[in-house]
Amino acid sequence: MNALQIVATTTPKYLKEVEDVTINNQPVFAMLRSRGRIETGANGTMLQWPIKLAKPEVQNFGAGVIDYVESDKYRYANLEWGGVYVSDSMTEKERLQNQGDAQILDRYAKIVPDMEESLVEQFGLSFYEDALEPDDLAGIESFMGNGSSVTAADLIAIPDDVYAGMSTAPGSGGAVWSADMSEKPNAALGTDWPSGKGQARYGAWSPKLVNWSSTRWVDNSHTTFKDTGERAIRQAIKWCTAAQGQQGRPDLCILASELYTELVNGVLERQRILAPARRLTEIGFPGGFSIDGVDIIDEYGVPANTGYILNTSKITLHALTSQLFDSKGPDWDPRTASWLFLIYFFGQWQFKSPRWFAKLYNYA
Predict the structure, then answer these.
(1) How confident is the model over 291-329, as pLDDT tens digits?
(2) What are phi and psi of 194, to 5 degrees?
(3) For labeling, which of 250, 312, 335, 358 is most exposed (least CB within 10 Å)?
(4) What pLDDT score does 67 carry?
(5) Rounded CA separation 275/286 (Å)
């Protein structure tokens, strides 16, 4: 077996170790693994899953006439498979200049770790990205778009995006929601959502976009995350849980580092104690703390001034390959007279429904 064959056969084993390091070093990945939410060996022309947008309607008996209506309230969400890769090319001239197995192996021993580091960094960031093209990895920002109608007094922004082929706008399916509150979460929306009550399909595909800088969390003079963060997080947890019950309860809040620092300072000033983050500690992340049973931590890659409240049991990372990362080559390409080498990921993020998630941002 020559040096190039050795590289081709040993790289997949090395990438399995890279997979373990990637997962163990990032809280979101580690939490997903602990819940069995990383799945390999996926197949199909696209990622598709059923969504229950509403429940069968219960009606009162009237004059003895029963009104039969369709009870199938399911629709299908669809996403294209996406992928990321990093590549290398060694020309035949370069191979000849490095003749000998030892020299070839030394070259790849230097290059492969750099390729791995680059791929892992980009792959980790994909969780927070917006899919701009159909074959992009559809991270959490793929359904966090909002309309322009938000003021400093509003507690939320209005979702306005398309995820997996369906609109995230509340009420886009024609359902109704209460409008009884004198001060609504968003005045322009005109309903009490995500507070209040109504038909399930009203917000069945809508995330909670929490305006943490609103003047209503405290007052006009206290709008920093240090002042408002704890209240905004507590309310977001309630909104995520209210219509879905305990299955909708979030378990993880990921913050940009500057927001995390502000939040910790504010909590310590008011309470002088931080509740331990039990789940994070169990999976190897002793930092962080807990608010209302939700673990709070910061992570590299979260956009500035932003946080996300997650229900990790409603997230799945799918890979089309038998392991998270795979490789091809080095293979000879006669057109370029080069040896081509590729490390890649093919798969997709799946967020079961945007309604299980919330974003924290200073919208106004």
Answers:
(1) 999 999 999 999 999 999 999 999 999 999 999 999 998
(2) -85, 5
(3) 335
(4) 75
(5) 12
Q: What is the pTM of this model?
A: 0.90
Strand partners, 39: 318
Strands 208-211 and 156-157: antiparallel
Paired tokens of 147: 């309309």
pLDDT at 41: 96
Give the span between the Cα atoms of 166 and 163, in whole angstroms. 5
CA dihedral 134, 251, 195, 258 (to 10 degrees): -80
**Distance (Å, whole) CA 308 – CA 252:** 8
SS (H, E, C) the chain: CCHHHHHHHHHHHHHHHHHHHHHHCCHHHHHHHHCCCEECCCCCCCEEEEEECCCCCCCCCCCCCCCCCCCCCEEEEEECCEEEEEEEEEEHHHHHHCCCHHHHHHHHHHHHHHHHHHHHHHHHHHHHCCCCCCCCCCCHHHHCCECCCCCCCCCEECECCEECCEECCCCCCCCCECCCCCCCCCCCCCCCCCCCCECHHHHCCCCEEEECCCCCCCECCECCHHHHHHHHHHHHHHHHHHCCHHHHCCCEEEECHHHHHHHHHHHHHHHCCCEECHHHHHCCCCCCEEECCEEEEECCCCCCCEEEEECHHHEEEEECCCCCCEEEEEEEECCCCEEEEEEEEEEEEEECCHHHCEEEECCC
Token pair 């917000």: residue: 203
Residues in a beta bridge with 341:
88
∠ CA 188-196-350, rounded to 5°: 80
Phi–psi pair at 94, nearest 5 degrees: -65, -35
Q: What is the pLDDT of residues 119-129, one digit of tens each?
A: 888 888 999 99
Q: Which two tokens stand for residue 194?
A: 């995500």
Contact (Cβ atoms closer than 8 angstroms) between residue 36 and residue 348: no
CA 69 to chain CA centroid, Å, is 36
